[in-house]
């Protein structure tokens, strides 16, 4: 069912006034005017109205990251983002990363490193990795692991995902036992806080 | 039911803060449900679990406050840090003033979900939802932050200690908009702690979390701020621990005294995330760990 169909269907069952808003989004470089209900999530708009089905609905609770897209360059869970709130924003989905048939370097690296099994989380992983690379904050494998922690892979392809991202990131060294990430420890400060 | 099947609501983007206050005052006076939406990371999920609206109920109005300039921005004026209620956790984590002067806030912000959630979630939302498990609120408790709220009656400032009254209840009136939080910062380089105990490091709700800031002069603490999540119906301020630890030299603190103060300050329960006993154990351990780092022989 498309978002617009759902609007009509829902209106028939309540006394609510018609609630539809026109918003403008730049999606993968193309400016589009779309009609949305206030409760249409960005994910539903992308998948059901615009037929960009790369972003996936996994948990629909903002926990799994399969719906990750870039909004104004920032990684967000599109399942928890109301489309109407992002009026005027620039959205990049997995469909917008490749240039025609030429794969984006991250897409190629995911293939080269066998960084997926079922592939359901992969569009979210790649969009998230693109955000991570643009942020220029990850320096080590530990950084990649932390900064990709919002993207779950139930097949457990994590080590290959990290390898694929590191390759594209151009990281020369893999840090395995170096600086700790604080896991299982408390963070204390006074000039001794970790930097990331 | 999924988020895509949300019940109907109206959405409006108010022009400015006076507009929000006016709309809110009017709707609250008529008992019409109204929601201020910033990041929406809690509220959208909540829509799935709350009871459905009665058919005859007024249509909820959602006011999108995420872009209001009055609610955005992070500023440092002397030792006073002001964080807009709709500034995101990511804004906070990247802010030079926060990094330099309030590193505990940055460290806490890392444990709020993952980057995708941090890019949307806000302190204002955390305060409005008012969960005793809220990490952001716990950090504000440790800083003894002040809430700045606005309504048609003007501005009001609520010290953290007089904010929370019961589980998800506060002294903020229904028509008051959370505009910012203000923190009187300890000197740069002061000790702090952020310790979250959960099923995993982030993307999980705390079983127990401790936030702490301190100012130490010699063998004494001249300031100790503590907040603890998920151990009471409201964010625990650990007032007995604060009083104990600032009342005598650090070397005179004993583990038994600290444990007794913690036990008196918290009232944990068994629930799906943890047990009363484990929470009490963690509460004692993390408080002792912080005081040990500060120099107490415990």
Describe the structure.
- Chain B: Keywords: FAD, Flavoprotein, Oxidoreductase.
- The complex is a heterodimer of chains A (196) and B (298).
- Helices cover 30% and strands 14% of the residues of chain A.
- Chain A contains six helices and six strands, in the order αββαβββααααβ.
- In chain A, α3 (105-112) crosses α6 (158-169).
- With 298 residues, chain B is of the alpha+beta class.
- Chain B has three domains: 3-64; 69-184, Uridine Diphospho-n-acetylenolpyruvylglucosamine Reductase, domain 3 (2-Layer Sandwich); 192-294, Enolase-like, domain 1 (2-Layer Sandwich).
- In chain B, 33% of the residues lie in helices and 24% in strands.
- In chain B, a hairpin with a 2-residue loop joins β6 and β7.
- In chain B, α5 (103-110) packs antiparallel against α8, α9 packs antiparallel against α10 (255-265) and α10 (255-265) crosses α11.
- Chain B is globular and about 60 Å long.
- Chain B starts with 9 loop residues before the first strand and ends with a helix.
- At the A-B interface, β4, α4 and β6 of A face α5, α6, β11 and α11 of B.
């Amino acid at each position: 069912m498309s978002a617009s169909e759902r609007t009509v269907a829902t209106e028939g069952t309540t006394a609510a006034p018609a609630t539809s808003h026109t918003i403008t989004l730049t999606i993968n470089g193309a400016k589009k005017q779309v009609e949305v209900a206030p409760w249409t999530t960005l994910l539903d708009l992308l998948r059901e109205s615009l037929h960009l089905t790369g972003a996936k609905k996994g948990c629909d609770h903002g926990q799994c990251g399969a719906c990750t897209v870039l909004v104004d360059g920032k990684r967000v869970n599109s399942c928890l983002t109301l489309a109407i709130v992002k009026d005027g924003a620039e959205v990049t989905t997995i469909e917008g990363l490749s240039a025609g048939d030429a794969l984006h370097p991250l897409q190629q690296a995911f293939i080269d490193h066998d960084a997926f099994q079922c592939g359901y989380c992969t569009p979210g992983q790649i969009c998230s990795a693109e955000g991570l690379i643009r942020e220029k904050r990850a320096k080590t494998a530990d950084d990649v692991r932390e900064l990709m922690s919002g993207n779950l892979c139930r097949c457990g392809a994590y080590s290959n995902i990290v390898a694929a991202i590191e390759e594209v990131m151009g990281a020369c060294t893999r840090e395995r036992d170096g600086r700790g990430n604080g896991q299982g420890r408390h963070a204390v400060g006074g000039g001794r806080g970790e930097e990331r | 039911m999924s988020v895509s099947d949300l019940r109907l609501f109206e959405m409006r983007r108010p022009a400015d803060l006076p507009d929000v206050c006016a709309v809110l005052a009017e709707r609250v006076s008529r008992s019409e449900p109204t929601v201020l939406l910033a990041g929406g990371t809690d509220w959208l999920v909540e829509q799935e679990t709350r009871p459905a609206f009665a058919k005859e109920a007024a249509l909820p109005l959602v006011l999108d406050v995420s872009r209001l300039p009055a609610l955005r921005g992070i500023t440092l004026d002397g030792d006073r840090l002001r964080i807009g209620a709709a500034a995101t956790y990511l804004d906070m984590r990247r802010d030079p003033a926060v990094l330099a002067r309030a590193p505990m806030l940055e460290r806490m912000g890392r444990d709020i979900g993952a980057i995708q959630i941090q890019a949307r979630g806000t302190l204002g939302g955390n305060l409005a939802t008012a969960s005793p498990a809220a990490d952001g609120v716990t950090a504000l408790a440790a800083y003894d932050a002040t809430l700045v709220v606005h309504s048609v009656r003007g501005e009001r400032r609520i010290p953290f200690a007089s904010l929370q009254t019961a589980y998800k209840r506060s002294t903020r009136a229904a028509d008051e908009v959370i505009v910012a939080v203000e923190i009187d910062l300890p000197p740069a380089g002061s000790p702090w702690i952020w310790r979250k105990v959960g099923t995993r490091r982030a993307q999980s709700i705390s079983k127990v979390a401790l936030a702490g800031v301190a100012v130490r002069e010699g063998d004494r603490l001249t300031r100790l701020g503590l907040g603890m999540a998920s151990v009471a119906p409201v964010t625990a301020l650990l007032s007995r621990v604060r009083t104990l630890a600032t009342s005598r030299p650090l070397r005179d603190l004993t583990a038994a005294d600290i444990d007794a103060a913690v036990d008196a300050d918290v009232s944990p329960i068994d629930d799906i995330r943890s047990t009363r006993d484990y929470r009490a154990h963690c509460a004692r351990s993390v408080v002792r760990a912080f005081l040990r780092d500060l120099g107490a022989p415990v």
